[in-house]
């Protein structure tokens, strides 16, 4: 076991609060702190369901940037309350936002969260992948 100190993502290690890797160190450069792990786990859990992943894809790929729930529901063999529940979980995870207009609710992607996920999961440019024991190319 090493006594090496590891920087923790989200932990303020400088006066500016930027840490040693800049403003947004990735998962592959520093361990997560507890709070960030809880937030990310909620996001990954929301994305871990095929229906929610499809819903997010349908919302994100929609021309105009938003879609009415009335256009989402027919794409699934599920009841409207079940679709609404899945959309609620995506909203609570910070992946989408909603706006009520009359009797319908319109959904749009929150790119800040998908950008954050991309930043956290992206390996620093030019850094080679580490060889994993037991895995071959």
Measured as a percent range, the helix fraction is 25-40%
Number of strands: 3
Low-pLDDT regions = 1-23
End-to-end CA span: 29 Å
Q: Radius of gyration from the CA trace?
A: 19 Å
User: How much strand content do the residues show?
Assistant: 5-15%
Total number of helical segments? 5
Order of helix and strand elements from N to C terminus: HHEHHEEH
The chain-level structural class is: alpha+beta
The oligomeric state of the chains shown is single chain
Net shape: elongated
What does this protein look like?
The protein is α+β, with helices and mostly antiparallel strands. It is 39% helix and 11% strand. The chain contains five helices and three strands. It has a three-stranded antiparallel sheet. Strand 2 (96-101) and strand 3 (104-109) form a beta hairpin. Helix 1 (34-47) runs antiparallel to helix 4 (80-92) and helix 2 crosses helix 4. The longest helix has 14 residues, at 34-47. It is elongated, with a radius of gyration of 19 Å.
């Amino acid at each position: 076991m090493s006594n090496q100190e590891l920087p923790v993502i989200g932990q303020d290690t400088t006066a500016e609060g930027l840490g040693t890797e800049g403003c947004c160190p990735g998962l592959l450069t520093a361990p997560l702190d507890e709070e960030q792990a809880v937030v990310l786990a909620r996001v990954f859990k929301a994305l871990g369901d095929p229906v929610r992943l499809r819903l997010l894809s349908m919302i994100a790929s929609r021309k105009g940037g938003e879609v009415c729930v009335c256009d989402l529901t027919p794409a699934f063999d599920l009841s409207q309350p079940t679709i609404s529940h899945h959309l609620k979980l995506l909203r609570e995870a910070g992946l989408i936002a909603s706006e009520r207009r009359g009797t319908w609710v319109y959904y749009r992607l929150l790119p800040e969260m998908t950008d954050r996920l991309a930043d956290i999961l992206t390996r620093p440019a030019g850094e080679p992948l580490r060889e994993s024991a037991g895995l071959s190319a």
